[in-house]
Amino acid sequence: MFKNRSHSYPDKLYCRQSIFDEMQRRFTQIESAAEEPRVLCIVQDTTNAKTVNERLTLNLPASTTVSKLYEDVAQKAGYVNGTFCLVWASGINTAPLDQADERSLVLSGFEAGKRNFLQLTDKDGDQPQIASDESGTADSSGLDDSSQDRFIGPLPRDGTVGCSSDYSSPSYSYSSILNKSDTGYVGLVNQAMTCYLNSLLQTLFMTPEFRNTLFKWEFEESEEDPVTSIPYQLQRLFVLLQTSKKRAIETTDVTRSFGWDSSEAWQQHDVQELCRVMFDALEQKWKQTEQADLINQLYQGKLKDYVRCLECGYESWRIDTYLDIPLVIRPFGASQAFGSVEEALQAFIQPETLDGPNQYFCERCKKKCDARKGLRFLHFPYLLTLQLKRFDFDYTTMHRIKLNDRMTFPEELDMSPFIDVEDEKSPQTESCTDSGAENEGSCHSDQMSNDFSTDDAVDEGICLDNASSTERVLKPKSSLTFELFSVMVHSGSAAGGHYYACIKSFSDSQWYSFNDQHVSKITQDDIRKTYGGSSGSRGYYSSAFASSTNAYMLMYRLKEPSRNAKFLDVEDFPEHIKRLVHREKESEEQEKRQREIDRNTCKIKLFCMHPVKMMMMENKLEVHKDKTLREATEMAYKLMDVEGVVPLDCCRLVKYDEFHEYLERSYEGEEDMPMGLLLGGVKSSYMFDLLLEIRRPDQKFQAYKPGEVMVKVHVVDLKSETIAAPVSVRAYLNQSITEFKQLIAQATGLCAETMRVVLERCYNDLRLLYVPNKTLKAEGFFRSNKVFVESSDSTDHQATFTESLLWKLLDRHGNTIRLFVSLPEQSPGCLANRTSCPKASADSEDSFDGATGSQRPVEAILEESTEKLKNLSLQQTSSTSDSQKSSEHSDFELIDSPAQESEAPSQPPELENQFPSDERSDSDVNNDRSTSSVDSDILSSSHSSDTLCNADSGPLPLANGLDSHSITSSRRSKAHEGKKETWDTAEEDSGTDSEYDENGKSKAEAQYLYFKAELYSQEEGSGDGQKCLLVHVDKRITLAAFKQDLEPYVGVPSTQFKVFRVYANNQEFESVRLNETLSTFSDENKITIRLGRALKKGEYRVKVYQLLVNEPEPCKFLLDTVFAKGMTVRQSKEELLPQLKDQCKLELSIDRFRLRKKTWKNPGTVFLDYHVYEEDINISSNWEVFLEVLEEPERMKSMSQLAVLTRRWCPSQMKLEPFREVVLESSSVDELKEKLSELSGICLENLEFAKGRGTFPCDISVLEIHQDLDWNPKVSTLNVWPLYICDDGAVIFYRDNTEELMELSEDERNELMKKESSRLLKTGHRVSYSPRKEKALKIYLDGGPTKDPGQD
């Protein structure tokens, strides 16, 4: 024996040395592999429409060969290697990679460290062959662990699945769900957020007792619709999970039977809640069947809720049933969590002593006594469900949190220590009365009698006959041993996450991870990883928003061989299940055949210009790849609805490019060629389309050859200034311009010698083709092109192209749009008749001097200064304007403004011959801008201000004796100098623009832009007097010039009407930026003209709201008005007075109301009368302002003052007094307290205050205000933390700290809570915190929710 040992000793040393050498060699390989550069390959599968958006990603060593790349791609895509090709996605090299190439990826053109994009394509026009499935059955065992992809947990973000050398995209392709997992089990597809559903369904499927009983139930189609039958859809799903060869199957039929729509797939719910709701639904569906009591038989347990008097032993109790046991992870207020399920179970049944104020009234003692209250388990279900309550609520942060503390759970759980534990042996008297105690968690409350049935007497663990506790006999301990078989895991936080299930198969005792469509083997170590917990010490609720992976629901099965069932084999299925399996197999085969058809069907867009409808029709042509072009043409002929309209022989299919409207080629002589070859194989998408071309019977089809380009030729007639419809011509890129002109001459009949050809390469890019020998390619021709040709004897061709009439005509053509303009229903007539005053003269100017200037209407002041400035500017530029008009008269006919005629019509022109021409340029604008006064029906308000610019008066005296800022002297000097006309002091764009340029003349005169208008009538929806214009206008025209062109048709000056652009759904928005062009408009846009004064530069439309601080709704809209830059607050108040009287029936004195800043609903800075808009007060478009009526004269005189709104809280009366304003001279807290003390009579030492929270009026419940506000902050000034009161309008609550809080009974508190809830809800303030509204989980037994909108 010793000899043999001595001989074996060197052998062991040799073996150890060999192992060491082998390990060293492998480490060396790993180190070298780590140093080797890697090639990232991203492969797009273009062979199928359902996989074209998927990407396969492989990260391979640079030494990998091309042939190995093919193998890896085949494995990842699920295809047979050799049935597909790989090509570069860039398109530079379209030849496929050689599958037999043994060169490395780097030598084959791949770049290490970068992304290399490839496309997986058909081989020889055939779809790739899907790899066959040889995985076995769902309950197969004995699989080699090394061949399994071990996977547990949610899909990693980068897609890694335990392999560092290559990884795939986490999004699965359609082909990946066609092959069953190597485990033999089938996954479930996640619809969106249905992982919780998938986890529960897989657990129920892997429960033999539930699956077998479900299979025994037979569906009666005559009694119920199969679509809405929950048990039938579950039965179908389980059949597919056991027999399907797919990797994963859909759950949409099951959720449809729940009555859910697609939106439910985007709602994540709690898996325990789903379990309860689904079991309730099954119980309802199984009523009056053999399965009616299935849920109770498998999952229901019983417990006793008792209260026992400690003096006499009298016990009051009730029996409750439960489907799961909720176990607390960490008791409320505790710093340590329970370490195991056993500890949590012990705490669940731990009794509580009721003493002191919580004493129990004993029925026997007839007094309050100390008592013991608790729970006792009476019966455990066959399938025990434990819910670990990981979701809690943090009352500090008012957020839901997840507790990730570690809690262990055994693989075998002995429940005998937790059943009917007697804590004392005193005699007891049991009474079946409702103790009123509320059960914890999800236990049912089921009032039962004191006598138990005989079935209860033989339940596991306890005899429930009416014997004393000493006579109760427990079953052997082994009968209460439960075996863990399912762990439903939650990964994430309380805000959201992912569920998956770890389930042990009772067939082979192997653990598997069921993670949606992925099923993989796992080990016991993976189960232990779901205990939870993290390193480091943590305080209470420190893991509130942490994301972790841990067990949430556990399912155990009682270890009892006589009851433990096995799964039914396929041959043992009931007959109705066998028929169902047969139907599902036929359906799967049909789906497979359909997939095969789809793989061989070419699907391509088809177009046709319908000869009757005269519009381009679009459809999708689906044709088998073996069908010939002749057969495909006949299919397209019927598809495009031209059968019977034109003969079939007048139609043909041609290759077409929709984007460029280009006919690429025709297929002469290829009528019998298969479509698969003709289109380049079956593809998910094609880079071209097909067009069903139709000819007249007397025509012949033109041959379209590859390499030709399509040219649309427009013939231009300079005399009539018209451009004809296009004529299509096909040319070659290598043709010269001379040859191209000859080709156009043949098509149009024009003379080639005098022909001018202009190419429009892109929008407004016109290029004259004048080099005879230059090719079309060199000139920039592409697939589809547009050219304009002109051939005449005029001298226009001698002018420079950009100065020629041809260029101007084409430029006008390219920029002209057609607009539909709706005029006001009753046009008030020509602007000459709307003018009530002549232009202002020097004499009239003098009349405005003196103290009465401040009393003049602002509009009169503004209009007069405008006229003076315009007249002065026009005198300086008249010679230039006249010369420009004469030089351009040949191109654009001009008309005189109707306002300048001695007799103008009172209505817009009805016929074109009322004017010398319909066309007018922007040079012919109305220079008579005399609009010092207009009728009241034109103005939007009685005294709308353009701006305050009293041209010759001094500073305006204000009521408070202060002078306004001088805004007139600089403008007056500028006007007399003839410089830039403006009534603004700033250059920036204020939202509206001036209608005049820097030289003071109308901006419409700066360019000559096309405008043509003609009247037309609306056929529908037009009322009496409604007129419409069809306007052709150059979209480079400014809005100001466009409005001036419309003046003759509207009948009022452009300043007296507004332009509204009409969008979809007839939404209208006013266009106010006069300097902007119509470039954002397009053909067929609609415009509505409305009477009313339009804004000018420096003016802003303002919404005025009334501030009612003590009303339930403190913000009330009054009216819209106009404020101008440079206007003082007092002047705007003067303008508001008549408007308030006319529109709001408010008669106010100017000193008894104020204007103040409005921010949302919060009142802000009080505007003082001498403040100037845009100098002291920033103003913007659609500005909002508060108007506050004062009960006494204004107390705010200076910006150094601070106005706060105060409200007294009276705790003894539980009420808040009305708001009262306090004006402070400084930001001192002492001054605030003194003012509040004077106001309320509270002693200074007893006065406390707090700042209101939220939006005005800072509403808060009277039940919360006494404790929730930050009373008496330790600060000396108001403008520091935590108050930050730096502006007017802050809300301050104050109280007397000696005043006691009213004591309320429970009924009074509840009544007050209801009133406060109603009050706060009406004001839009939340009563309690609600972080997010969660949709309740419901299963509808009738197939869908009711349509009652009021039902929750």
Automatic annotation (TrEMBL):
USP domain boundaries: 186-559
Instruction: List the Pfam families.
Output: Ubiquitin_USP47_N, UCH, USP47_C
What spans are recorded as compositionally biased (Basic and acidic residues)?
917-927
Q: Which domain of life is it from?
A: Eukaryota
- Stretches of Low complexity bias are at 871-884, 930-946
Matching InterPro entries, A to Z?
Papain-like_cys_pep_sf (IPR038765), Peptidase_C19 (IPR050164), Peptidase_C19_UCH (IPR001394), USP (IPR028889), USP47_C (IPR045578), USP_CS (IPR018200)
Q: Which GO terms describe its biological process?
A: protein deubiquitination
Spans annotated as Disordered: 121-167, 419-450, 830-855, 871-1000
- Acidic residues: compositionally biased ranges: 984-997
Q: Name one GO molecular function term.
A: cysteine-type deubiquitinase activity
Residue stretches of biased makeup (Polar residues): 129-145, 428-450
**Gene Ontology terms, cellular component aspect?**
cytosol; nucleus
The record, for PROSITE patterns, names: USP_1, USP_2, USP_3
Q: Which UniProt keywords apply?
A: Hydrolase
Q: What CDD domains does the annotation carry?
A: peptidase_C19C (cd02659)
Q: What is this protein called?
A: Ubiquitin carboxyl-terminal hydrolase 47
Q: Which organism is it from?
A: Triplophysa rosa (Cave loach)
